[in-house]
Amino acid sequence: MKPFPKTEMAENGMVVAPHHSAADAGLNILKSGGNAIEAAIATAASLSVHYPHMTGIGGDAFWLIYDPEEGVSFIDASGYSGGEVKPEIYSDVSDIPFRGKLAANTVAGAVSAWSLAYEKSQANWQGSMSASQLMSEAVLAAENGTTVTASLAETLKDKANELQLDPFFADVYYPQGNTPRAGESLIQAALGNTLKTIGEKGFDDFYRGQVSEDIAFDFAHRQGLITHDDLKNHHAKWQPYLELETSHATLFNASAPTQGVASLMILGLFDRWVEKLPDIDSADYVHLLVEATKIAFSHRNRMDTSATPEELQAWLTPDYLDQLSEQIDLNKARPWGEQTSPGDTTWFGAIDSKGRVVSAIQSIYHEFGSGFMLPKTGVVWQNRGCSFSLDPTNVRALAPHKKPFHTLNPAIALFKDGRVMAYGTMGGDGQPQTQAAVFSRYAYYGEDIQTAINKPRWLLGRTWGNSSETLKLESRFPDSFSLILREKGHDFEWLSSLDSSVGHAGALIRHTSSTIEGAYDPRSDGKSSGF
């Protein structure tokens, strides 16, 4: 095992991303005089090329932005289901499939997040970088080739039987019928041309320009579900965020349709134990956060995706959290039967020299999303809409112009001593759990932020390709945890020592001295890039 990374320190700016080239792309923007929003856009575009199994411009995004003068703001760039997406389309199946054209049933909103954030950068932050400059590294990597990482190669190998069913996908990601190996070069020429076009014509072109026409043409030609009108009618929006006051900081997260409320509830419940916290390296610490997760997920799973922030804030009131915390027994596990969701995602963050912060998350849901390729643009479309239910009585029942449930949720914390922290992770239902592990280790126990990410983690619920809903722990935890957790009533199993199913976390912290700390996940191909 290679040595664990150490916390990166910088004074002028930093970017953290789960791929090193994407982090460097954002850093280069900062070094060229760009701000945190501009750096984050460049990072997002670069991730779409270097980490196509985890994210892409055919997916959705949510951004939290912090400005010392303006406070926190939140962008919801998730897409609605198409206007023609109706339950009768799926009359021959019991569930919405994960792959293919029937899975590609919601508008992709990621690029609209770039557009709305870019407007803020230009209007409020005196942004100096052109959209073309922000796309340049991603365009070059797509046209000239990105080096295939081990995780990308493994995904293409493991999912070949599903993904090669789409001939246009196979043409790009299985060139000449071969599965790319780690270290080889992968060219995504059509995607590069699309990124170049939206750089030259503006991000809005993805929805109301030549790129949107090409997308709509391919959907129609391939008998897909998304139309030109669906694209034209999509806009990212500034929305109210959720917040939670804790002993150490005020925490901010995304509102519906995301599970941001669950992330806040877990830490809100944990905060009720601040006077009697278990040892950080004990099984009781894991048990406490797992029990908080069960309570939070039971609430989240009955949440309507159109729930208002006011409705969700009611779950975060001190009195309500006090009541819920009484349900936690340190000696006994609650019954667990909730269904959970896997998911591939990328979290990335940026801080500039003026202390402005972006915490963003962008995803196509499962590995390569639906696997449905649009050949004119090189865009692989997300399958977020497979989280809809075909049961008309379900709170998440499929309907036209409806937002699906999202696991995506970026986080920001404003500490009482003036520190600002951006943090997040990929990992579907693991996202709230990993956020809780990283934040609690750092804020409550004083762990170094990189150590907080390096240390072993857990997951309650499913991993990819595995329907098991058990509690899973990385094998670097002590062997004794197995007996202790089973005695408490947990259905338990081990993972590998550094397992991607517990997420690819990242964090950035700016101190009042202007020093910036950054940490990335050794489970990823990431980097903390600062100067």
UniProtKB/TrEMBL annotation:
Q: Name one Pfam family in it.
A: G_glu_transpept
Keywords, alphabetical = Acyltransferase, Transferase
* Regions that span the bilayer: none
Which SUPFAM superfamilies does this UniProt record tie to the protein? N-terminal nucleophile aminohydrolases (Ntn hydrolases)
E.C. code: 2.3.2.2
Q: Which domain of life is it from?
A: Bacteria
Class of the enzyme per the UniProt entry, highest EC level: transferase
What molecular functions are annotated in GO for this chain?
A: leukotriene C4 gamma-glutamyl transferase activity
Q: Which InterPro entries match?
A: GGT-like_enzyme, GGT_lsub, GGT_ssub_C, Ntn_hydrolases_N
Q: What is this protein called?
A: Gamma-glutamyltransferase YwrD
Q: Which organism is it from?
A: Hydrogenovibrio crunogenus
Name of the gene this protein is made from = ywrD
